[in-house]
Amino acid sequence: MKYPTLSQAFETTDFLLNLEKVKALALTRIKDTEGPADTLVYDYKTPEVELAFWKDQLESTTNSFFESVFKRTTNVQHPNYVGHQVATPAPLTAVTGLVNSLLNNGMAVYEMGMSPSAIERVVTDKICEAIGFDSQSGGFLTSGGTLANLTALLAARKEKVSTDIWNNGLQQQLGIMVCEEAHYCIDRAARIMGLGSKGIIKIPAKDNYAMDTSCLEYELEKARNAGIAVFAIVGSAPSTATGAYDNLEAIGKFAAKNNLWFHVDGAHGGAAIYSDKYSYLLNGIANADSVVIDGHKMLLMPIITTALLFKNKWHAQRIFSQQADYLLDDTQEDQWYQSGKKTFECTKSMMSLHWFILMKTYGNKLFNEYVTRQYDLAKEFEALLRNDKDFEVAVSPQSNILCFRIVKQNWSTEKLNQLNADTRKAILANGRFYLVQTKLKGIHYLRTSLMNPFTELSHLSELVKQIKAAALIINP
To answer: What is the 3-state secondary structure (H, E, C) of 97-139?
Structure first.
């Protein structure tokens, strides 16, 4: 070949050499689910230090790239990882990730994604079935809950607002209703759509941080009297901060009565449809017009893959009326295989492979066992904390998310907030555990998302000990 470097890039020598390195590193990381005492979950470095390290690495002659990446990233395989809502992916999905990267079918149109498009149809039909939708339903996969929720609300606007906003722009003040504890991406989606702050009607939460559905009629009338044309309502399943599920049955009845689009943001907890024990939390979801479920949260898949499902499959195909003649033709037939007609992405990864391989290999039993186990573990952790006078639980968990804090008698809220924030910093600096934090009604809580299927109550008991020890050092 005339260009030697280009030729070298496509030889298999470097590929096989590095594949063996990654294979060894991956096997070690997967074994970290056993949680050996001498491994860290998190080796924190400041942004400046990390940036300097990788600048040096780019110019270095040493070949330690993959080793450094493994060493300097958060270890979600470790059972002491109880931080953000990111899955410990089933190892088999690392293989589908490799296949996706190598084949690189962009899926803009059927010709560039023949197999993954058909696989996606099989997967989304199965999820619709699990939700309780009928044969008129359908959906697609997209890149994350934020994008999926925005797409769902665009579909809602398309179906429920009579004016042609796509071509003529906003002609009136529109609005959506959502609990004040909902994920921030709903607020972001509304603002992207031009609704502004007036168009986000935030419904108060009850003491358990779920939507207070008794306020719905009042809030709707108030909005309409203010000239806001409300077209949709969003139910959280669950909210992100506390894992609280909204009453989907009540929201669905309200939506039907008032001719509103009913959307369920089940990015985190929609996977409970597969749990024999906890599916009741989603009672009423089958009445939704659209549902979002993340594969990379409670379905053991790598980031990033999200299912957006519609009770009426035609709603998925009418979201975007823009035509690109060189890609897509304008037709009334069911073109489920033309991904570009339904999603923001013109280029999309073959994310359907992850869903399909887990469904084919393990069936829904895998999802049932995983969700049930993690939700049960949160309840066990709650019991442990409630039996300890040094801790206070924000609210009984409905999912695998639990918020709690250290308490001291006669301490002010401000002082306790600082103690809990400083304690978390100490835990991260130690590196043996990774957990996050949140604020609820001005109170600072430590927050755990129990994502790892190998986290046991014994690990959480050790976390409690470390939190106590760190707090004692901060305030003897």
So the answer is: HHHHHHHCCCCCCHHHCHHHHHHHHHHHHHHHHHHCCCCCCEE
Per-residue pLDDT band at 340 (split at 50, 70, 90)? low
Summary count for the chain: helices (H), strands (E): 17, 11
Q: What are phi and psi of 113, to 5 degrees?
A: -165, 50
Listed residue (166, 161, 163, 155) closest to 315, CA to CA:
155
Cβ–Cβ contacts within 10 Å for residue 364, how many? 15
Average pLDDT over residues 135-156: 93
> What pLDDT shows up at residue 177?
97
Spatial separation of the C-alpha atoms in residues 467 and 326, rounded to whole Å: 59
- Global pTM reads 0.93
> How far from 4 is each of 10, 58, 62, CA to CA, in Å?
10, 21, 22
Spatial separation of the C-alpha atoms in residues 28 and 24, rounded to whole Å: 6
**pLDDT band at residue 35 under the 50/70/90 scheme:** low
CB half-sphere exposure, 377, CA atoms < 13 A: 24
DSSP bridge partners of 262 = 233
Helix (H, G, I), strand (E, B) or coil at 238: coil
Q: Residue 337 has what pLDDT?
A: 65
Whether residue 232 contacts residue 223, with contact meaning beta carbons closer than 8 Å, is answered with no
Instruction: Label residues 16-34 b or e (16+ Cβ within 10 Å = b).
Output: eeeeebbeeeeeebeebbe
Q: Which residues contact 126 (CB under 8 A, 6 or more apart)?
A: 359
Cα separation, 316 vs 330, in Å, equals 15
Residues 6+ apart with CB under 8 A from 258: 220, 230
**235-245 residues labelled b (16+ CB within 10 A) or e (exposed):** bbbbbbbbbbb
Amino acid at 304: I
The whole-angstrom separation of Cα 426 and Cα 357 is 40
Residue 129's pLDDT is 97
Cα 227 from chain centroid? Answer: 34
Answer yes or no: are the C-beta atoms of 474 and 422 closer than 8 Å.
yes
Q: What three-state secondary structure class fits 475?
A: coil
